[in-house]
């Protein structure tokens, strides 16, 4: 079963952020509810550390846990945290997982951004084949030439559609070899990292906090 699942993940073109797998076995019994609790705990931490996004937003909330399930999950967490840190130092935090529901979180700035807005930092993001680089200072985000963005635009993002049309007309956005993407040929300035994220993804739902990675952490 494990080989089949890993093979399925490896064949999925949307999982381009997966580069390694760590498998842990042990004496504790894990049912589906405990698995979902652990998924909520560790995937949430990995996402907030900037390594991955949450693939299925409903998975984390889809269980009704008993006291036994919660206690078992806590014990398994104690076993897994040091093992995950050994497999990839820094992958998970040495703190308790975030408990607030996903939809209730406050929008946070990308990691590595100077909170005082005094220093300009460089970040990169990948999204379903798109690859963009930007500099950020405070709320201002400047998308750099050479960035590759998704060509399609979601139907409900009229501002984005109008901005794309304007930039294509002025030659700032040019078609690439692959019709699924556009190439940025000049600097494009946005008021926030969140706005730049929507520009790169074509308006798809994505967190600026989780998608933009500081260059010096790659």
| Strand order in the largest sheet | 7-3-2-1-8
Shape: elongated
Q: How much helical structure, as a percent, in the residues?
A: 25-40%
End-to-end Cα distance, whole Å, is 32 Å
- What is the C-alpha radius of gyration, as a whole number of Å? 20 Å
pLDDT < 50 runs, ≥5 residues: none
Assembly type of the chains comes to single chain
Give the overall average pLDDT.
Answer: 80
Query: Order of helices and strands, N to C?
Result: HHHEEEEHEEEHHE
Number of alpha- plus pi-helical segments: 6
Number of distinct beta strands: 8
**Which class of secondary structure composition applies to the elements?**
alpha+beta
- Share of residues in strands: 15-25%
Biggest pleated-sheet summary: 5 strands, antiparallel
List keywords for this structure.
218 residues; 16% strand; elongated; alpha+beta; three-stranded antiparallel beta sheet; five-stranded antiparallel beta sheet
Tell me what you see in this structure.
With 218 residues, this protein is an alpha+beta fold. It contains 6 helices and 8 strands; from the N terminus they run αααββββαβββααβ. Helix 2 crosses helix 3. The longest helix is centred in the middle third of the chain and has 21 residues. The chain is elongated.
């Amino acid at each position: 079963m494990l080989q089949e699942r890993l093979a399925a993940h490896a064949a999925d073109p949307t999982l381009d952020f997966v580069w390694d797998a760590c498998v842990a076995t042990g004496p504790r019994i894990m049912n589906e509810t405990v698995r979902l609790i652990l998924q909520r705990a560790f995937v949430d931490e990995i996402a907030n550390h900037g390594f991955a996004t949450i693939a299925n937003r409903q998975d984390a909330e889809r269980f009704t846990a008993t006291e036994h399930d919660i206690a078992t999950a806590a014990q398994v967490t104690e076993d897994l945290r040091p093992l995950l840190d050994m497999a990839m130092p820094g992958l998970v935090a040495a703190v308790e997982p975030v408990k607030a529901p996903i939809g209730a979180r406050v929008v946070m700035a990308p990691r590595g951004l100077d909170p005082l807005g005094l220093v300009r930092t460089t970040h990169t993001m990948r999204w379903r084949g798109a690859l963009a680089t930007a500099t950020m200072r405070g709320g201002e985000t400047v998308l750099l030439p050479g960035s590759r963005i998704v060509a399609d635009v979601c139907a409900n993002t009229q501002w984005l559609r109008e901005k794309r049309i304007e930039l294509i007309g002025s030659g700032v956005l040019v078609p690439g070899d692959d019709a699924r993407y556009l190439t940025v040929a000049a600097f494009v300035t946005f008021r926030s990292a969140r706005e730049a994220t929507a520009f790169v993804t074509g308006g798809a739902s994505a967190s600026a906090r989780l998608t933009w990675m500081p260059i010096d952490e790659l």
